[in-house]
């Protein structure tokens, strides 16, 4: 049976008390840079940069971009000026932290069994670290990336959101093209791993020797609490389920909208720009046309509808026939990068309107020309479904041309 399974890393696959680890990590890095930057200045800049990553809710830019925009200006230096020292730190000093960690034989066997079953395996560790730091910790866990074909390892270079935002988990699934199979999350942190994954709609396995928290009543009925030794049998049960998780809760809908521009930016990073305006088949859209379609629908349909529902009492929403816009507007001749930036901007405007709404706001009524009586939640849910369709279309277009 097919399954996409997301595993946390620290204190899940690798024994690692993360708070003492991070404290020692920052101390070593501060000492490495002490000749040019005082440890106090370094720690303040690091705290502000990490806070910025933790607070990020808009899709523009990776977490690395967010970190760089805060950290280096706070130090008054350029990233390039510290690159040699930081690279040397990860080669020579960061490996010293291995002594604070221990591999877990049960975790190694669990991952091996997952691959033996043909499952998609994601290392869903909080992407506040660069790739080098995460890959080293996987090696310390006995699970190196050169020996295990992970579908994705989240790092601050390839992620736009972090835990505990549901958008972090939505971005993973979007990058994997919203797999049409069961999916699940395994982790040891109730706040970072379990709650946000549950909000997205995933069943979860909470690694804990204690009873689950009192606020666990809303968990997926398939979810479980237990020890690492119990995870494989639970995953076998999840893999036998029919269908895919339901991503129809408010948090899941919002997370999907956040994740779509992020995933498309990730797709684009490895796609040669000279191919963006090339169609895989004469009657199929090119990558740029897909971006233009998403941008224009957000700008000219979705934004207006959301504003009407929020401002008016049961407004009438006329139908919008948008597929013909791509041809009529000659989108194939547009600059793809500009179209992507335009989509990210338009989507961010929508997210700003939605992100702080309460439950009552989401239930505001409207009348749709085709769907009849509806609510804001249902309308935005249609946008999320539309997003998932075009994520797959974009990926298929890229695959056909590369």
Automatic annotation (TrEMBL):
Gene Ontology terms for molecular function: metal ion binding; phosphatase activity
Domain DinB-like as annotated: residue spans: 257-394
Domain of life the protein comes from: Bacteria
Record-linked Gene3D superfamilies: dinb family like domain (1.20.120.450), HAD superfamily/HAD-like (3.40.50.1000)
UniProt keyword annotations, A-Z: Hydrolase, Magnesium, Metal-binding
Electron transport in keyword set: no
Keyword set includes Coiled coil: no
InterPro entries listed in its UniProt record: DinB-like (IPR024775), DinB/YfiT-like (IPR034660), HAD-like_hydrolase (IPR051400), HAD-like_sf (IPR036412), HAD_sf (IPR023214)
PANTHER family per UniProt: GLYCERALDEHYDE 3-PHOSPHATE PHOSPHATASE (PTHR46470:SF2), N-ACYLNEURAMINATE-9-PHOSPHATASE (PTHR46470)
Name of protein: DinB-like domain-containing protein
UniProt organism field: Bellilinea caldifistulae
Native organism taxonomy: Bacteria, Bacillati, Chloroflexota, Anaerolineae, Anaerolineales
